[in-house]
C-alpha cells in the first residue's frame, strides 16, 4: 500500500498548493496583480497564533481571532495605502512593476517583521484535532492532513460556487477582464480589489494555522508557499480558480510519487524539470498566452 | 515617461562611453583607496552583482524578457571557476574565460528550448531553473553540497594581501566596465530600438521585420554569460562559493537590485547593486532587519517612480535643467523661436509628387505576372472554419478591397498573408514562390508590410522612432555586431523622408500616444510604407475616423495604390468602392464576390450581405 499512502500524502500537500493557487488566481482575476505574499500571510497566521497562544498565554480561540483580525486589517491597510497610490491615481501604473513587484516587496516586508516578532526558530500553531492517525486497511490518515483536505474542499468549492452562480462572482470576473468596461457597468473594481485581497489573506492565514502542525513554519516559510501557489496558479492559467485547484492537487501528487518512487533527494529536481517541460510543450493549453503583457 | 524612455535610447556615442568611463574611473579609485577596508570589500562584492544586474537591465527591464536564469548562471560561473581552481589547479583569471565559453554554450542549448516561450510562460519555465539547480547542488558532494565550495586561488594571485585585494578589485571593476559598455551600446544602437519594440509587443515586432526568435535567444545568452562573469568574479574575489548563491532567494535579491536601481537603465542597475550591498552593512539594526528595509525601500521607490532610482534621477535632472538650464541657454541663444507649436492642427496630406519609384521594386516578370497568390487557403480553429477554400490573385500595382460582415475571416486572411497565422490548408505564393511556412519577419523582408486593426504603435517612443523601426533592416546581424556600428541614424533618416513625403514631418518628435487617432493611424501607415513594400496589407485604416478624415485618407490610399499593391480591409463600403479597382467579398470564410467597383455597387449578393437590402 505504498502507493495508496503516497497518494494520500500527495493529496494533502496538493490541497495546500491548491488553496494557495485559488487565492492567487481569484485575486489576479480581479486586480491583474499576482499576490506573491499569499504564503507570507499563511506564515503570519501560524506563527501569530503560536505567539499569542504559547508565548503570551492567551486562550486558543482568542489567539486565532486576534491573528486573523490583524492579518485582515493589515491587508486592508496595505490596499488602501500602497495599491491605491499605485493604481487609483490619475496615471495608474501597469505592466510587470505592478503585476509582480509590489506584492514581492510586501512579501519581503512581512518576512522581516515576522523575524522581528517571532524570531527565527521553527514553530507551529497547536494542532486543532489531536489524536493518533486514523487507519483504514493499511492506509494512514493523519488528522491534521484530513483537516487540511477538508478545508481545501470547502474553500475551493465556495469560491467556485461564488464565481459560478452569484452576481458578485460575475462582477468579479468582469473586473480583471476589462477594468474600464467593468466600471462603466457599475462595478466598483477597487472595492473588489481590497475585498478579495483581504479575503484571500485571511483564508491563507487560516490555512497556515491548520497546516503548520504538519510541517512547522519559520519566518521564511512564506516564500516557498507563495511559490508553489504561484506555480499551481500558473498551470491553471492564472484566471481559472477551478483549474488552479486541479493543478495544485496534480503537483502535490506528482511530488509525492516522485519522492517515493524516483528519488528522495532528487525528487523535487525531477518534479520541477517536468513542470518546466510542461510549460514549454504546451503553453497555449495551459493558458499562458493571454496572461501578462508588458 | 515618454521623454525618459526616449532618452535611454540616445543617438550620441557618448551615452555609452560616459557611464563606462565613470564606472571605470570611480571604481578603480574606490578600490585603490579603500581596497583593504570594509568600504572597498563591499564595493567589490557589489561590483560582482552589478555585472549581473547590468545584463538584466537589457534582458528583463528593457526587452521585457523575464527569465529567472541569472542566479543559476552566476552559480555556473562561480562553481565552474571554483572547480577548475581546486581540482585542476587553474588560476582564476584563466578559468574565467573558459567558464564563460561553457556558460555561453549551456545558455545556447537551454535558451533554444526555453525562449520558444514568451511572456509569462518564459517566466514560469525559467523559474524552475533555480529550483532545479538548488536541489542538484545541495545533494551533490562534488560541489560541496549545502556547505559550499572554497577556492584556493584568487582573481589576482599575489603573496601580498594588499596587492591581491586591490588587483582583484581592479579586475572586477574592469569586467564591470566592459559589461556596462556593451549593455549601453546595445541600448543606444538600432538593436536597442528593436528590443524595445520586442518588449512591448512581439507580434508587432515580427511584422516590422524584427527577427524575434533570434533576438530572444541572443538576449537570453547575453544575460546568462554576464551572470556567469559576475559569478566568476564573485568566486575569485570572495574565495568561496556558498550554496545560497544559486537558490531562488538569490534570484529575488538580484531582481530587487535591478528594480530599485531602475529596470531599464544600465547605470541604474549598477547603482541598485551598490545601494543594496551597502545597505546590508549600514548598521547592525539594518543588517538584522534587511528584509523589512528592502521591502519598504522597493515599495517606496516604485511608488515614486516605476523606473526606480534612475527614473527619479532623470526627473530631478530634468527639473533642474528646466529651472536653471533654460535660463543659461536663453542667455546664450536668445533668438531661437520655439519650433512649430501647431502640431495639433490637422495635417495636410502632401502626396504629390507621390513617393514614387524610390525603391518600391517593380516585379521583374512584368505587370501581368501575379505578385501574390492565395491557393485554396483554409483555416480552422478547433472545429470552427474561419476561411474556407479562399483563392485570390493580386498583381504588383493597384488597390484591392476586401469586405465582408464581422467574423467573415477578413483579418484572418490578412494574418495568413502576413504570416502571423499559419493556414490549415492551402498555399500562399509571392512571385510564384511558396511562402506558406515563411515566418512574418522574413515576409517583411520579401516586401510584405502591414497595419493592424487596433493601432499597434510603440507607446513611449516618438513618431520618428516608430517609423524608423520598419527601416532598420537588421535581420541578418546579431546583437553583438551592432555594438560596433549602429544603423539607427540611417533608419531615422529614411523614416524622416517618408514622414516628409506624407506631410507629417512636423510631428516626428512627438510621442505617439499624444497624437489624435487620425494621426496615429497615419503614423502606422507611414511605418508600413517606409520600407517601400511591394504588398501593403491595411486592416481597417479608416475605423474611428470622421468623414472628412476619410476623404483625406481616400486620397492618400489612391496615391499609394499607384505605387504598390494594397490589400485594404474596410467596413466603409463607399471608401472601398471609391478607391479600389477590384473588390473581394468574404462571407463566413468563403469568397462570394470578386469584381470591379461598379459591379460591387450593383451586386445583389453584396447588397444583401453588407447593406442589408
- In what order do the strands lie side by side in the largest sheet of chain A? 1-2
Low-confidence stretches of chain A: 290-294
**Distance from first to last alpha carbon of chain A:** 49 Å
Please state the structural category of chain A.
mainly alpha
Give the overall average pLDDT of chain B. Answer: 84
Anisotropy-based shape of chain A: globular
Total DSSP E strands of chain B: 12
Q: How is the quaternary structure best described?
A: heterodimer
Q: Main attributes?
A:
heterodimer, A: 294 residues, mainly alpha, ABC transporter involved in vitamin B12 uptake, BtuC, two-stranded antiparallel ribbon, disordered C terminus, B: 613 residues, alpha/beta, Rossmann fold, six-stranded mixed β-sheet, four-stranded antiparallel β-sheet, 25 helices, elongated, disordered N terminus
How do you describe this structure in short?
Chain A is mainly alpha-helical. Chain A has one domain: ABC transporter involved in vitamin B12 uptake, BtuC (Orthogonal Bundle). Chain A has helices at 2-31, 38-55, 60-87, 96-118, 143-165, 167-177, 179-184, 189-215, 221-235, 241-262, 267-281; strands at residues 134-136, 139-141.
Amino acid at each position: 500500500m505504498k502507493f495508496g499512502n503516497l497518494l494520500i500524502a500527495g493529496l494533502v500537500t496538493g490541497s495546500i498548493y491548491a488553496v494557495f493557487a485559488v487565492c492567487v488566481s481569484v485575486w489576479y482575476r480581479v486586480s491583474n496583480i499576482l499576490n506573491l505574499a499569499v504564503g507570507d500571510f499563511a506564515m503570519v497566521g501560524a506563527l501569530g497564533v503560536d505567539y499569542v497562544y504559547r508565548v503570551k498565554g492567551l486562550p486558543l480561540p482568542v489567539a486565532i481571532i486576534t491573528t486573523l483580525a490583524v492579518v485582515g486589517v493589515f491587508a486592508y491597510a496595505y490596499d488602501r495605502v500602497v495599491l491605491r497610490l499605485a493604481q487609483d491615481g490619475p496615471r495608474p501604473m501597469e505592466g510587470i512593476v505592478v503585476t509582480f513587484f509590489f506584492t514581492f516587496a510586501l512579501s519581503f516586508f512581512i518576512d522581516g517583521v515576522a523575524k522581528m516578532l517571532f524570531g527565527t526558530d521553527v514553530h507551529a500553531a497547536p494542532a486543532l484535532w489531536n489524536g493518533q492517525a486514523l487507519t483504514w486497511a493499511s492506509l494512514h490518515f493523519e488528522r491534521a492532513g484530513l483537516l487540511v483536505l477538508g478545508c481545501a474542499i470547502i474553500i475551493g468549492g465556495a469560491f467556485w460556487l461564488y464565481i459560478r452562480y452569484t452576481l458578485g462572482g460575475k462582477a468579479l470576473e468582469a473586473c480583471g477582464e476589462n477594468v474600464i468596461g467593468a466600471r462603466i457597468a457599475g462595478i466598483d473594481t477597487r472595492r473588489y480589489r481590497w475585498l478579495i485581497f483581504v479575503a484571500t489573506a485571511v483564508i491563507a492565514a487560516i490555512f497556515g494555522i491548520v497546516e503548520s502542525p504538519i510541517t512547522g513554519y519559520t519566518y521564511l516559510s512564506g516564500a516557498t508557499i507563495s511559490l508553489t501557489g504561484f506555480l499551481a496558479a500558473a498551470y491553471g492559467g492564472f484566471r481559472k480558480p477551478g483549474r488552479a485547484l486541479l493543478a495544485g492537487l496534480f503537483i502535490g501528487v506528482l511530488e509525492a510519487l516522485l519522492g517515493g518512487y524516483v528519488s528522495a533527494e532528487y525528487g523535487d529536481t525531477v518534479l520541477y524539470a517536468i513542470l518546466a517541460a510542461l510549460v514549454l510543450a504546451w503553453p497555449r493549453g495551459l493558458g499562458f498566452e493571454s496572461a501578462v503583457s508588458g | 515617461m515618454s521623454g525618459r524612455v526616449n532618452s535611454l535610447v540616445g543617438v550620441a556615442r557618448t551615452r555609452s562611453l560616459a557611464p563606462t568611463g565613470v564606472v571605470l574611473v570611480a571604481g578603480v579609485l574606490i578600490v585603490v583607496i579603500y581596497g583593504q577596508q570594509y568600504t572597498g570589500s563591499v564595493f567589490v562584492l557589489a561590483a560582482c552583482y552589478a555585472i549581473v544586474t547590468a545584463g538584466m537591465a537589457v534582458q528583463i527591464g528593457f526587452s521585457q524578457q523575464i527569465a529567472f536564469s541569472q542566479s543559476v548562471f552566476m552559480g555556473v560561473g562561480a562553481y565552474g571557476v571554483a572547480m577548475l581552481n581546486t581540482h585542476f589547479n587553474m588560476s582564476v583569471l584563466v578559468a574565467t574565460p573558459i567558464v564563460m565559453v561553457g556558460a555561453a554554450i549551456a545558455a545556447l542549448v537551454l535558451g533554444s528550448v526555453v525562449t520558444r516561450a514568451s511572456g509569462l510562460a518564459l517566466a514560469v519555465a525559467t523559474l524552475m531553473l533555480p529550483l532545479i539547480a538548488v536541489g542538484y547542488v545541495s545533494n551533490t558532494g562534488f560541489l560541496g553540497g549545502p556547505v559550499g565550495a572554497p577556492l584556493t586561488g584568487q582573481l589576482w594571485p599575489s603573496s601580498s594581501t594588499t596587492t591581491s585585494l586591490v588587483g582583484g578589485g581592479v579586475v572586477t571593476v574592469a569586467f564591470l566596465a566592459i559589461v556596462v559598455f556593451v549593455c549601453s551600446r546595445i541600448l543606444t544602437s538600432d538593436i536597442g530600438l528593436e528590443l524595445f519594440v520586442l518588449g512591448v509587443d512581439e507580434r508587432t515586432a515580427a511584422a516590422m521585420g524584427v527577427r524575434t526568435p533570434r533576438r530572444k535567444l541572443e538576449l537570453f545568452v547575453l544575460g546568462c554569460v554576464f551572470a556567469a562573469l559576475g559569478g566568476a568574479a564573485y568566486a575569485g574575489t570572495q574565495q568561496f562559493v556558498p550554496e545560497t548563491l544559486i537558490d531562488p532567494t538569490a534570484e529575488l535579491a538580484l531582481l530587487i537590485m535591478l528594480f530599485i536601481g531602475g529596470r531599464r537603465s544600465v547605470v541604474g542597475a549598477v547603482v541598485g547593486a551598490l545601494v543594496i550591498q551597502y545597505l546590508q552593512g549600514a548598521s547592525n539594526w539594518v543588517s538584522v532587519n534587511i528584509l523589512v528595509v528592502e521591502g519598504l525601500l522597493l515599495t517606496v521607490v516604485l511608488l515614486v517612480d516605476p523606473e526606480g532610482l534612475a527614473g527619479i534621477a532623470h526627473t530631478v535632472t530634468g527639473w533642474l535643467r528646466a529651472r536653471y538650464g533654460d535660463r543659461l541657454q536663453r542667455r546664450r541663444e536668445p533668438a531661437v523661436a520655439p519650433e512649430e507649436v501647431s502640431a495639433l492642427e490637422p495635417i495636410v496630406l502632401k502626396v504629390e509628387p507621390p513617393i514614387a519609384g524610390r525603391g518600391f521594386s517593380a516585379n521583374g516578370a512584368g505587370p501581368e505576372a501575379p505578385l501574390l497568390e492565395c491557393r485554396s487557403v483554409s483555416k480552422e480553429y478547433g472545429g470552427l472554419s474561419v476561411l474556407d477554400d479562399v483563392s485570390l490573385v493580386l498583381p504588383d500595382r493597384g488597390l484591392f478591397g476586401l469586405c465582408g460582415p464581422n467574423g467573415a475571416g477578413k483579418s484572418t486572411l490578412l494574418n495568413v498573408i502576413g504570416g502571423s497565422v499559419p493556414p490549415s490548408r492551402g498555399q500562399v505564393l509571392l512571385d510564384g514562390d511558396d511562402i506558406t511556412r515563411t515566418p512574418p519577419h522574413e515576409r517583411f523582408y520579401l516586401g510584405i508590410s502591414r497595419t493592424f486593426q487596433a493601432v499597434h504603435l510603440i507607446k513611449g517612443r516618438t513618431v520618428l522612432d516608430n517609423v524608423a523601426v520598419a527601416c532598420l533592416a537588421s535581420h541578418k546581424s546579431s546583437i553583438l555586431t551592432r555594438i560596433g556600428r549602429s544603423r539607427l541614424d540611417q533608419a531615422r533618416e529614411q523614416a524622416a523622408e517618408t514622414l516628409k513625403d506624407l506631410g507629417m514631418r512636423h510631428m516626428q518628435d512627438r510621442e505617439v500616444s499624444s497624437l489624435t487617432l487620425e494621426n496615429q493611424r497615419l503614423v502606422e501607415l507611414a511605418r508600413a510604407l517606409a520600407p517601400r513594400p511591394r504588398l501593403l496589407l491595411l486592416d481597417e485604416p479608416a475605423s474611428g475616423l470622421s468623414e472628412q478624415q476619410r476623404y483625406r485618407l481616400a486620397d492618400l490610399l489612391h496615391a499609394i495604390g499607384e505605387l504598390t499593391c494594397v490589400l485594404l480591409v474596410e467596413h466603409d463600403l463607399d471608401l472601398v468602392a471609391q478607391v479600389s479597382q477590384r473588390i473581394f467579398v468574404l462571407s463566413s470564410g468563403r469568397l462570394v464576390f470578386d469584381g470591379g467597383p461598379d459591379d460591387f455597387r450593383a451586386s445583389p449578393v453584396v447588397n444583401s450581405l453588407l447593406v442589408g437590402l
